[in-house]
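Async update (no meeting this week)

Hi team, since we skipped the sync, here's where things stand on the single-chain job. The sequence we agreed to prioritize is pasted below, unchanged from the tracker. I ran it this morning and attached the output directly underneath so nobody has to dig for it. Comments welcome in thread, and please keep replies under the output.
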Amino acid sequence: MKKQLLLALALMMGFSPVKAQDEKKEEGFQFTTIKEIPITAVRDQHRSSTCWAHSGIALMEAEALRIKGVDVDLSEMYVVSHSMMDRAEKYVRLHGNASWAPGGKCGDVLYCLEHYGFVRQEDMPGNRYGGTLPNHTELDLVATGYVKALAKSDISKLSPVWKEGLQGIYDAYLGKCPEKVNGMTPQEYAKSLGLEADNYITLTSFTHHPFYEPFALEIEDNWRGCPYYNLPIDELMEVMQYAIDKGYTFQWSADVSEQGFTRDGIAVCPDAEKAVELSGSDMAHWLGMSASNRRNELTSKPMPEIEVTQEMRQEAFDNWETGDDHGLLIFGKAKDQNGKEYFMGKNSWGDSGKYHGIWYVSETFAKYKTMNIVLHKDALPKNIAKKLGVK
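Output:
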């Protein structure tokens, strides 16, 4: 009886226990969009190491929207087929003393744009083995076995048809690369979307090469040796902010092995010591938590983040803590309930995470773990373009 009276009194005063429970559930990250640039739908790379193709194509699709107002679904597997054939030729030419893996960079997408053009998803769905999503487990095994057997062999002369054999493997799994799109060559079709490779530039930030000069970043997936223009990290962050403010998306490659990059749409670099202070717990209790529980606690809501320096970035790159793990398309900015800003990224893991395929990347995470970005040259602030000699 007493409980019923208390409940009745609470309802009369406008208090709802159910509402209170709902509000408690919303104590985590709460985002408000600041700027959002139109993009195409979220795709799903599924069981394939093709984030580089998905994020690069996502940039090209967003650019077609920006330049021509065309909402197009371009074929990632067209890019994959051409890129892996090029990579195999280099690997075999060097007798296996090069990188061979299904990963890649957005530079491969730009190379494809320039030399092979693009086709639509409907022209080359890239899936002849059943199902609706990419699954390259078997393809990668077969192609790797073929290429490495040749590259590491002791035969004295290669036959003139070895590339046809490998192309046959990719054609069997992904389908043949179309030669025409609506009566146009793939190069002509890409140009009809307003896409030209010379209009795009790749930027990075490391101190083992001079700033404001291009260099081939020493990572396995940059097997083509594509040039990366080198900026101080504060200027790279300035470019990222400026691009979004001016309505340009950019492809973002980063290390996502950090505990602050979650499967639920969050990428942050929490300061564990400050988090302990705010939680009111002692360090012994905090350190006694399992790694999984500690990660969940640090990424459950906005926390203080670490202070990032150029030296920290370089050290993490040099000691292999920062690698080239994943690629997204950055297309907007948002702020959390405390006013801290985040980049909004379109992922290629389908309708996953709390935000249905969208990730919120804190400025701190981007400053620390960005490997490189790719964007239209017009998205550069004029003072930075001048320093780079880009016109």
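Quick observations from my side:
Strands lie at 32-36, 200-204, 214-216, 227-230, 250-254, 266-267, 326-335, 341-346, 358-362, 370-376.
The two ends are 79 Å apart (CA to CA).
Reply here if anything looks off.
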